[in-house]
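--- STAGE predict ---
source: upstream dedup step, 1 unique chain passed
mode: sequence only
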Amino acid sequence: MVDMSSPEFESGTEDAIIEMVSVELPSRNAEAEEAQDHAISWAAIVAGGVASAALTLVLLAFGAGIGLSAVSPWANSGISSATFNIGAGVYLCIIAVMASAIGGYLAGRLRTKWVGVHTHEVYFRDTAHGFLAWAFATVLSVAVLASTAANIVSGAAAALTQANGSTAGQSAGPAAGFVDLLLRANPAMTRSDAVDVAVARSELDRLFASHLSTGEEFSAADRSYLAQVVAAHTGLIQADAEKRVSQVIEQAKSAVDSARKAGARFALWLTASLLLGAFSASLAATEGGGLRDGTWKY
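--- STAGE serialize ---
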């Protein structure tokens, strides 16, 4: 131990000790500053998430306007399932990348500057800010996206169930088209016959809706009853009526299956777009944070 009061103590030795002590001060000050800084800037995350969600809705509305978000299993109605699979699916991914990148960039650029934090830690925090901004935007947009997914996944089933609440003569929905095929008659009908057909149409509408919406097979009794109704209102013999019933049921089942397959493809495209959005937001946040700190070079 050096006795600083000793006459042998030299001034050079005193300067050396002071310099050794001062070397430890910056690191301790840096640790204190890092401990006082918050690792998460929620204001920046919320701002980036809101911007991303808003841009997502704008691009979805634009896609709906040009027909990229619509899919219909019914013939000559909307775009085909194959067109949706390629066109609308790719557009969903483009929306995710664009909106998430902007939201992530804002989250990184608007966050507070971390003083005394290691470069690798700053990179991790920026990445986390971008990911959290994407997650927040997804939560905000989930109502719209879930509604879109439900409309496509349910497809024909959702539309067919609308016929359950229809009154006689006022049936609507895709099931009405199949009922038209069943009750199609060649000779002109009187007014009383038209009323009878309207009542039969409402009953057959409900029967098709209940079976097709749940995927339940038509029983032998149902098929026999359908054939009797068709024969009574169209003038066909029983054998021809049964053949028509079988053909129409197969067409209806094929349409519902196409809608469900389109819904499954949509779910896969939606998953891919969400993953791309998370990656884009995280990457853009590192760029925004680097520009905020002046460490990112173009």
